[in-house]
Amino acid sequence: MEMSSKTGVSKIAPAEGRLAVLTPGMGAVATTFFAGVEAIRKGVAKPIGSYTQMGQIRLGKRTENRHRAVGDLVPLAALEQLVFGGWDVFPENAYESARHARVLDQALLESLKEPLSRITPMPAVFDREFVRRLDGPNRKRGRNKRDLAEQLRQDIRDFKLEHSCARAVMVWCASTEVYTPPGEVHRSLKAFEQGLLENDPTISPSQIYTYAALRERVPYANGSPNVSVEMPCMQELSREMATPISGSDFKTGQTLLKTVIAPGLRNRQLGVAGWYSTNILGNRDGEVLDDPGSFKSKEVSKSGVLGDILSGDRYPDLYSDIHHVVRINYYPPRGDNKEGWDNIDIFGWLGYPMQIKVNFLCRDSILAAPIVLDLALFMDLAGRAGMRGIQEWLSFYFKAPLAQPGLRPEHDLSVQLLKLENTLRFFAREELINHLGLTYYGVDEAAEVA
Ligand SMILES: NC(=O)c1ccc[n+]([C@@H]2O[C@H](COP(=O)([O-])OP(=O)(O)OC[C@H]3O[C@@H](n4cnc5c(N)ncnc54)[C@H](O)[C@@H]3O)[C@@H](O)[C@H]2O)c1
Q: How close is the Cα of 34 to the center of ligand 1, in Å?
């Protein structure tokens, strides 16, 4: 995480004017997000699950009893200022796509038909080599990948102009691509730009969107496990363009719980012998993940979590021999209402074994939509605060949080929240809270805020 000055944020530009929230992908997650914000604007729903809208943050010592709403502490764009746009290979508008996704009640959707119907997808940059289970007609043609990137850049400029937007942010809500580890072409910005010109087959569509966003100084958040913001070339570009990036893969259901339970077990020094996670899911995302190449991306982002939290290298007696299995099964009858099971084999004092079973009947897009909103608002804030490069303080939202090369990512949800809160206090020039707490017990720590 870098900033414009070594001493911190000098001045955050005000959130004036309209903010374009652009989503590559207008499927279940994106349309549930658009519809939710429209419903909240109409006053028929509350922004449940959104930290930017409902979160409270403590300031100063506990004895001061000072709490502020997040939006009162830092200058976030208001929901009324958001304008939605996106790209998709299917030409359906957001109302039609939301009907197809079957996440929201028909009656609610009918009441939002007018604003949702106005959101029509721009032609996508799409390549079946990277998403094998889908195909659609609404796609761009170009001389090479550089040309496709230029077309996306033009889309961003046109959208901002047409909708009189002062700024834009991009949050990837499109399908999970086939796993592509970084190669030579991703090693530097120069190599990547040459690769765009030469149509390098290892450059995926999501990387082309990331590139286009950053070149337009549009903050970019990656909601899928696609490998894009992780690439050295993208990190170089985000620094060069003084534009923030964050990722990857929205932390919603099973992994959210994993990053609550696993730190708890580790904090109490309880051992883990195995963690078996399986899911049934019947939406389009599940259909795409049924392809082994796309599943591989998801497996990588879902599996890293335990290794990092439980750190077998530091706790060899407790975690060096964990059997961690993650499965996703495409099962159409469930639609977006995913069911996740976790069986956790743990052991305690004298090695006695115990088990934990978790059965989470969740709604995938209902959990993801508020994350899209928070990321859009926080990435816009980061841009106005002069932040560039990796935004580690937004790890809270991701299954595979980005961290500076050489740094272990932070997965523990409560530590991620502390990091997020302290970053907001830092933005607001409030004292950071270290939770030491000795000051309440007569130990005179003048500088301590606990
Ligand atoms: N819902 C969750 O809980 C959750 C959690 C973490 C991550 N995600 C990720 O979010 C993404 C979206 O999930 P969803 O449930 O909305 O899926 P979805 O299949 O309903 O929607 C994805 C949309 O992206 C479109 N698309 C695919 N490639 C595209 C491209 N190159 N350009 C533009 N559009 C393209 C598809 O046509 C589809 O309409 C997936 O990658 C998913 O893995 C979802």
A: 14
- Are residue 179 and residue 86 in the same domain, yes or no? yes
- Our answer on whether the CB atom of 101 is closer than 6 Å to any ligand 1 atom is yes
Cα separation, 33 vs 36, whole angstroms:
5
Ligand 1 neighbour 368 (Cβ under 6 A)? yes
pLDDT tens-digit map of 65-118 = 999 999 999 999 999 999 999 999 999 999 999 999 999 999 999 999 999 999
Atom 39 of ligand 1, nearest CA residue: 27
The verdict on 298 and 231 lying in the same domain is no
Burial of 243 (0-12, 13-18, 19+ CB in 10 A): buried
Average pLDDT, the chain: 92
Q: Which ligand 1 atom is nearest residue 175's CA?
A: 41
Q: What is the CA radius of gyration of the chain?
A: 22
User: Directed axis angle between helix 145-162 and helix 205-215, to 10°?
Assistant: 50
Alpha-carbon gap, residue 89 to 141, rounded angstroms = 12
Q: Is the CB of 178 under 6 A from ligand 1?
A: no
**Domain residues for 292?**
254-361
